[in-house]
Structure formats: structure tokens, C-alpha cells
Design a protein that fits this description.
The structure is a single chain. The chain is mainly beta. It has one domain: Autotransporter beta-domain (Lipocalin). The chain is built from 1 helix and 13 strands, in the order αβββββββββββββ. A 12-stranded antiparallel barrel has the order 1-2-3-5-6-7-8-9-10-11-12-13. A hairpin with a 7-residue loop joins strand 12 and strand 13.
Length: about 260
């Protein structure tokens, strides 16, 4: 009997210790700003969601859907993760004062990439990470296939402002697979801890093409941590200039598979 009690006590002590050692869940959704944190070594993290985007001009209306944006993140080593992403997309275009309507759908190019932690936060120095990736055209549906392999690179920065506030920002460049001329993008996000397990963010982000065309947007959203390894989110945003989409809404979930 003493052996049984000792065994049960040891089991619960180990389980409690393992639960206490679970790292905080840090996701790269729902905002546009990638975090400077990597997935812990040998953990697999799944982040998926849905996006509806609306854009209207004097001639046409466009509804864009991302039915399933999925990102797999695997911690290969300490401070280094592999990333695999894909989405099933759809677009509906209608012309004003016309019967014209067009619907297309298909998979986006498969994104293959990595994130590496460059520096830890210390004093005024933020957490810093570098992300790089390729989008493979042969994996995409015909309506979303670029002519060549697309590429993206970015630096991610993160500051802890207080127990409740954090600041993240990204700077990067991307090649769309059609021209050799890169585009540039930025994002700045303020994270706020509201109550236990409930957080929100407010963010500004945009993209600038070499030719001078720019898109600027503003979004905000909420995250709720249901368990130490499971989070749900909802967010929405608006365009700040004519070149940007009018608005979008998104919801999704993130799950980290425990070791």
C-alpha cells in the first residue's frame, strides 16, 4: 500500500512539474507582426484561420477569402524553428453596372521558411529574430501560381514595456515571383494584457513597392488562451489609403502539441 501511495505521489509530482515548465504560448497570428520568439525545441505549433477581405472602387467590387491559412512551426533547435505554410484562397470579382462576375479558387504557393533568434532582450535592446522563406510556384493552383519562386525576408523586434504592455515591429522585403524588383513592408503592434488569458493588440502595417505604390492599414483584435497550449483569436482591420483593401475580418486558433 505504501508503495502504491508513493508511486501515485511521484506520478502527480512529475505531472505537476511538467505542467509548470510549459513555456508561454507565443503565436504569429492574428496580427501581421511576426513575434521575435521561436517555438521551443521539439515542439510543434499549428496556427490556422479564416480571412474575409473586401475592396471596392469606382468600377468593381472584390471579395477575397482565405478559407484555411495554416502555418506549421517546429522548434528544431533552441532559438531556431522551421516553418511550413499554405492557404486555400478564393476571389469573387463583380463589375458595377454590369452582369460580369468572376470566381476563382485554389491553393496559394507553399511557403517554406525558418525563424532564428538573433538576440535576447536586454535593457534598451529588444528581442530580435530573422525570418526567411520561399514560396514554391509548382505547389500553387493555376490562378495563384507566380511565374518564379517568390521570396521574403524580415527582421522581427520585440520590447517588453511592462507586465501588461509589449511592443513588436517588423521590417522586411519580398519578391513576388513576377519581377526582380522587391517590395518592402513594415508593421508595428502594441500588445495589451487585459485580464488573465485575455489579450488584445492594435497595429499599423503596410507595404511599399519600388515603383512608389503603397498600402497602409490599421487593425486590432483579441486573443484568448483556453489552455496553456490552445489559443483562439479574432481581429479586423481597415485600409488607410485608396490602394489598400477597404476592410477585413479574421478568426482562427493556435495549438501547440505538448511533448
Amino acid at each position: 500500500m505504501k508503495i502504491l501511495i508513493s508511486t501515485l505521489f511521484l506520478f502527480f509530482a512529475v505531472a505537476l512539474q511538467a505542467q509548470q515548465q510549459v513555456p508561454d504560448l507565443v503565436t504569429d497570428r492574428p496580427d501581421q507582426t511576426e513575434s521575435a520568439a521561436t517555438v521551443p525545441k521539439h515542439f510543434l505549433q499549428i496556427e490556422t484561420g479564416f480571412i474575409l477581405e473586401n475592396d471596392e472602387n469606382e468600377i468593381s467590387r472584390n471579395k477575397s477569402f482565405a478559407y484555411n491559412t495554416t502555418l506549421l512551426r517546429y522548434g528544431l533547435w533552441d532559438n531556431f524553428e522551421l516553418r511550413l505554410g499554405a492557404a486555400y484562397l478564393g476571389d469573387n470579382v463583380t463589375k458595377k453596372n454590369s452582369d460580369f462576375s468572376q470566381n476563382i479558387a485554389g491553393f496559394s504557393p507553399l511557403h517554406v521558411g525558418f525563424k532564428v533568434k538573433v538576440a535576447e532582450e536586454k535593457g534598451l535592446r529588444p528581442d530580435i529574430a530573422f525570418l526567411g522563406g520561399l514560396e514554391l510556384p509548382f505547389t500553387a493552383g493555376s490562378d495563384y501560381k507566380p511565374s518564379y519562386t517568390a521570396a521574403t525576408m524580415r527582421f522581427a523586434f520585440s520590447h517588453t514595456l511592462s507586465d501588461r504592455f509589449s511592443l513588436g515591429y517588423n521590417l522586411g522585403a519580398e519578391w513576388d515571383g513576377e519581377t526582380a524588383v522587391p517590395g518592402y513592408f513594415y508593421s508595428v503592434a502594441l500588445g495589451i494584457g487585459l485580464i488573465e488569458n485575455l489579450g488584445m493588440f492594435v497595429e499599423s502595417f503596410g507595404a511599399i513597392q519600388e515603383a512608389g505604390t503603397a498600402q497602409h492599414q490599421l487593425d486590432a483584435g483579441f486573443t484568448y488562451l483556453l489552455t496553456p497550449n490552445f489559443q483562439v483569436d479574432i481581429s479586423g482591420g481597415i485600409g488607410l489609403n485608396d490602394a489598400a483593401p477597404d476592410n477585413f475580418i479574421s478568426f482562427g486558433l493556435s495549438y501547440r502539441i505538448p511533448r
